Amino acid sequence: MRIFSGIQPTGDKHLGNYIGGFRQYAKTQELGEAFFCIVDLHSITVEHDPRDLYERTLDLYAMLLAAGLDPNRSTVFVQSHVTAHAEASWLLSAVTSFGQLGRMTQFKEKGDVREFVSAGLFTYPVLMAGDILLYRTDRVPIGDDQRQHLELARDVAERFNSRFGETFVVPEGIYPEVGARIMDLQETTRKMSTTGGTEQGTVKLLDEPDVIRKKFRLAVTDSGREIRRAADKPGVSNLVDILAVATDCTPAEVETAYEGKGYGDLKTDVGDAVVAFVTPVRERYLELRGDEPELRRLLAGGAEKAETEAAPTLAAMYERMGFVARG
Ligand code: AQP
Predict the structure, then answer these.
(1) Beta bridge partners of 6
(2) Which residues are bridge partners to 75 per DSSP?
(3) pTM score, two decimals?
(4) 100, 116, 275, 279 - which has most CB atoms within 10 Å?
(5) For a substitution probing ligand 1, which of 193, 195, 241, 274 has the most ligand atoms within 8 Å of its CB?
(6) Position 298 in a domain
């Protein structure tokens, strides 16, 4: 089985990324041949600082290794190191519906709050479709926010296959049972996010333990006193889910354990549990991040492996679309 997921080197990575993404990657790499791509080309779809992109690409690589990705087992690489991604994106734009791109929630949400909306923000899901399809991916571990983009990638694959002949595997998403959508601790109906969240409501993986505890202490809860998951209790549901993931139990077990207790107990305990959960990752990250030459050496190996895998798919795309190969 082929597994692929992409992660943006943008902003400070947060608990939502870890629970919805990184935590799954380490598990799914056991299922088959896995590719994890630092999607730097995606990061330029919103205004960015070049120096920042450079640093954050290496930060993210160190973070992925700290979260348990093994570069000897999985192919972990930077998107711009494998030029097939940019090429595939252009070719696939021929079989992507303009109307469908316009319906992408993420485009609308990010576009609405910006004065300058780049063409790249609009076409971003085509690049993402190429990322996934180049590796003939069967499964894509992602959080709930990427569901719509994956659906588009599936449509693109099917349209290409039916117009030009069977070329792509039509991939399926793998979503975590609990924690597929971690919410902002302050604005509890919005997902925790790098670009759209509140400062106090976003728990960063590199926050100091006291900062994490404080963010949970100040988390917004709901009316009523019961600690249970319910549609009208987004704040409490979120805390229950986070505690369940951090302590490796089910949300139902958390609800039972907190019968008769107050929100204050829950908030303190979630804060402590998250600190215990992320501290080993943070420590390992700091150790790895200190050795930049080694990170770049490992990345070069990842790029070579990824390039070898992507090349035949890209060649098949060109050929089936009727391009004359260079003699
Ligand atoms: N709140 C979330 N809950 C669960 N999973 C989440 N993911 C992101 N936010 C949540 C998942 O994290 C993985 C890596 O995401 P990414 O860094 O590539 O980009 P993203 O989805 O765009 O994350 P952000 O932080 O929310 O960035 P912005 O603010 O730019 O949109 C993905 O699998 C994602 O599903």
Answers:
(1) 37
(2) 35
(3) 0.93
(4) 275
(5) 193
(6) yes
